[in-house]
Specification:
Elements lengths: L1 E2 L13 E11 L2 H11 L3 E5 L3 E5 L9 E5 L8 E5 L2 H7 L16 E7 L18 E3 L2 E7 L3 E6 L11 H5 L2 H17 L12 E5 L8 E2 L1 E3 L10 H10 L6 H5 L7 E5 L4 E8 L5 E10 L12
Length: 302
């Protein structure tokens, strides 16, 4: 992972961010998620109530780092970062108002996070079928994995405008049945095997952007329409926009720089796509912000 201070000159490595300080993760399978973190990873819940569970690693000096919160979808919510020094904190908050994220009030210091080696994270290749376009169930699809396996298809091919609400799409049983049929056929093509019991691949419908972004989305994971889009699913969608052909290519409005806004029902996800001279994606990630939450002195008891 490369952590870069200046989003306009994002080539110089920087180590201001020491580590995550707090991560809140919404989950629609709270019991299963809690069991995985406690039984498999060995974390302990020092605090738990009906809506959330705080988790702590053995010998960790913070009360809790991950926090699982019951929700209708699964993903990553609030992230708090710890800086390497007071000077690093000052640098991180010096750009107050400089970066804005869709759905988040106000502006804050930009924290671009770019990753390398995402291609084929689960499928073994960026395009696991070896093609930009596969016809599945009579629908042109891009099967792609740049951090998250996704099946990308034109919303119009499913009889949709692409601006339907999440609630309307969730109630569209015929649509969900057709998407599931395509998803099950895509599984073996993506080296995922039988996708019936898996949450991947994600099904992503793409219409043309409507609010100034690069592309718009409606995502199903796996059978429910999501209110937003996950970070790495957004990375895969943005990467699909840069291919030679495909549903996303035909609809995308490519930005001049590295910053791709991937629209979703809630707002837009900020994706950073780094390409070489030939246009191939060499790195991808997301834009986050850092805000000063508090400042002062602590006087522990002697």
């Amino acid at each position: 992972m490369t952590d870069m201070t200046n989003p306009t000159d994002a080539r110089e490595p920087c180590f201001d961010i020491a580590r995550p300080g707090h991560v809140e993760m919404p989950t629609d399978r709270h019991g299963e998620s809690l069991d995985s973190f406690t039984r498999v990873y060995g974390l302990k819940p020092p605090g738990e109530d009906a809506t959330s569970a705080c988790l702590r690693a053995r010998d960790a000096y913070e009360f809790a780092t991950p926090k699982l919160t019951r929700a209708g979808t699964t993903g990553v919510g609030h992230i708090g970062y710890r800086t390497a020094s007071p000077q690093a904190l000052a640098r991180r908050v010096s750009a107050e108002g400089g970066a804005r994220l869709g759905g988040v009030p106000g502006g804050a210091a930009p924290v671009p996070l770019v990753f390398e080696g995402l291609a084929g994270s689960m499928c073994g290749a960026l395009l696991p079928s070896g093609r930009h376009v596969d016809m599945i169930g009579g629908v042109a699809c891009t099967l792609i994995d740049n951090g998250m396996p996704c099946v990308i298809l034109d919303a119009r091919a499913m009889g949709l405008r692409g601006d339907e609400t999440r609630k309307a799409l969730d109630a569209h049983e015929a649509l969900k049945a057709r998407l599931e049929s395509i998803r099950l056929m895509a599984g073996p093509l993506m080296a995922l095997g039988d996708a019936g019991a898996q949450s991947v691949p994600k099904m992503t419908l793409v219409p043309a952007p409507r609010t100034g972004g690069a592309i718009a989305t409606r995502s199903f994971i796996p059978h429910r329409c999501r209110a937003t889009i996950g970070v790495f699913a957004a990375v895969s969608v943005a990467t699909a926009c840069t291919l030679g052909e495909g549903p996303a290519v035909a609809l995308a409005v490519l930005p001049e720089g590295e910053r791709f806004a991937v629209e979703h029902p809630g707002a837009a996800a900020e994706v950073l796509i780094r390409r070489d001279a030939a246009g191939r994606v060499t790195g991808a990630g997301t834009l986050r912000t850092a805000r000063k939450l508090f400042e002062g002195r602590v006087f522990p008891r002697a």
